[in-house]
Amino acid sequence: MSNPFLKQVFNKDKTFRPKRKFEPGTQRFELHKRAQASLNAGLDLRLAVQLPPGEDLHDWVAVHVVDFFNRVNLIYGTISDGCTEQSCPIMSGGPKYEYRWQDDQRFRKPTALSAPRYMDLLMDWIEVQINNEGIFPTNVGTPFPKNFLQTVRKILSRLFRVFVHVYIHHFDRIAQMGSEAHVNTCYKHFYYFVTQFNLIDPKELEPLKEMTARMCH
């Protein structure tokens, strides 16, 4: 295992936080396995994201949101030692885009924060959402809340900002580690999924528009 990126991926200390697991034997676990099998088989990512016949959209979305959270977490975790209060005092995506943090607790108004602080709050916030049984029920038959897709759109929009920051401010680190292909595949998978199900406002996609046009069309 000579690739330094893979070494870091398999080094548990580098994972940004614990992964949310799917319980074996559950419908969600079977969907997760099916989604993984499609990716491992090298299926075209545009086809891999499509809802399998007979499956519930909410279940399919839930599985992917958790998976994207884990993957994006891992990507940020591998470059986080280079994303500091000094190097990234503002959570941004180049000179045109600045992201401010807002939540229901401490930051009720959009607040400018450093990138590492923003990332920490973001990952904590998403983890709370996906571990909340009222939003992401794990028992088959328990209905999803009416505002499920609305919550998912917020989660995915915020995860997209991690891609923006990593690509624009830390791509040299990704390249140095030889992990461009891996990160690009994760990004394409994410992009095809959110556009397939209209889960992200096109305005959010603007910062990476040119790169996406080259990579995904």
TrEMBL record:
SMART domains assigned to the protein according to its UniProt record, in alphabetical order: Mob1_phocein
Keywords noted in UniProt: Metal-binding, Zinc
Residues that hold Zn(2+) according to the record: 83, 88, 165, 170
Keyword Metal-binding: yes
SUPFAM superfamilies reported in the protein's UniProt record: Mob1/phocein
Record field: transmembrane: none
Domain of life assignment: Eukaryota
Pfam families: Mob1_phocein
Family matches, as InterPro entries: MOB_kinase_act_fam (IPR005301), MOB_kinase_act_sf (IPR036703)
Protein name, per record: MOB kinase activator 3A
Organism per entry: Jaculus jaculus (Lesser Egyptian jerboa)
Species lineage: Eukaryota, Metazoa, Chordata, Craniata, Vertebrata
